[in-house]
TrEMBL record:
<comment type="similarity">
    <text>Belongs to the cytidine and deoxycytidylate deaminase family. ADAT2 subfamily.</text>
</comment>
<comment type="subunit">
    <text>Homodimer.</text>
</comment>
<keyword id="KW-0378">Hydrolase</keyword>
<feature type="active site" description="Proton donor">
    <location>
        <position position="58"/>
    </location>
</feature>
<keyword id="KW-0479">Metal-binding</keyword>
<keyword id="KW-0819">tRNA processing</keyword>
<dbReference type="InterPro" id="IPR002125">
    <property type="entry name" value="CMP_dCMP_dom"/>
</dbReference>
<dbReference type="GO" id="GO:0052717">
    <property type="term" value="F:tRNA-specific adenosine-34 deaminase activity"/>
</dbReference>
<keyword id="KW-0862">Zinc</keyword>
<dbReference type="InterPro" id="IPR028883">
    <property type="entry name" value="tRNA_aden_deaminase"/>
</dbReference>
<feature type="binding site">
    <location>
        <position position="56"/>
    </location>
    <ligand>
        <name>Zn(2+)</name>
    </ligand>
</feature>
<feature type="domain" description="CMP/dCMP-type deaminase">
    <location>
        <begin position="5"/>
        <end position="132"/>
    </location>
</feature>
<dbReference type="InterPro" id="IPR016193">
    <property type="entry name" value="Cytidine_deaminase-like"/>
</dbReference>
<dbReference type="InterPro" id="IPR016192">
    <property type="entry name" value="APOBEC/CMP_deaminase_Zn-bd"/>
</dbReference>
<feature type="binding site">
    <location>
        <position position="86"/>
    </location>
    <ligand>
        <name>Zn(2+)</name>
    </ligand>
</feature>
<feature type="binding site">
    <location>
        <position position="89"/>
    </location>
    <ligand>
        <name>Zn(2+)</name>
    </ligand>
</feature>
<dbReference type="Pfam" id="PF00383">
    <property type="entry name" value="dCMP_cyt_deam_1"/>
</dbReference>
Length: 166
């Protein structure tokens, strides 16, 4: 429904990875790395499963991209991610020298590509990234809100069940 290779087209692909995160009981955030109109890497949140606070979607995708291109610089790549990167991931993107970042929903709590700070276009850092934000933002944020709503309901139901048993 979106033109092939458009930002929306690729964001749909990132959203599919967010669904995989959710299937693992993780916060649904997904990312892909695109080079020459091909997906060369993907990632989704795995922090809970892997007991690893660094296992964010962007981190997983960038690590995989590096292995794929056999280079730690991602000069001609674009990272698509459903949620604005945190400070750790935004810092990682600067280190990777990635050309473009495209994200969906803004993150007012930890977003470091413009919301609470901007590491992606910091004039004192040695690399600035071309950032496009808000691509399919409503779909991306709705997925997150639905997840948290469901999780709150599950916690509430579990508490109720525990009370009933005692
Ligand atoms: Zn992150």
């Amino acid at each position: 429904m979106y033109p092939e290779f458009s930002d929306e087209y690729w964001m749909i692909e990132a959203l599919k990875r967010a669904d995989v995160a959710e299937q693992h009981g993780e916060i649904p955030v997904g990312a892909i790395v695109v080079k020459d109109n091909q997906i060369i890497a993907e990632g989704y949140n795995l922090s809970i499963t892997q007991h690893d606070p660094s296992a964010h979607a962007e981190m997983m995708a960038i690590r995989q991209a590096g292995k794929h291109i056999e280079n730690y610089r991602m000069l001609d790549c674009t990272l698509y991610v459903t949620l604005e990167p945190c400070s750790m991931c935004a810092g990682l993107l600067v280190h990777s020298r990635i050309k473009r970042l495209v994200f969906g929903a803004h993150d007012e709590k930890t977003g470091s590509a413009g919301s609470i700070m901007d590491l992606t276009r910091h004039e004192k850092l040695n690399h600035q990234i071309d950032v496009t934000s808000g691509v399919l933002a409503e779909v991306c944020s709705e997925k997150l809100s639905a997840f948290f709503k469901k999780r709150r309901a599950e916690i509430k139901a579990a508490k109720k069940a525990a009370k009933g048993e005692s």
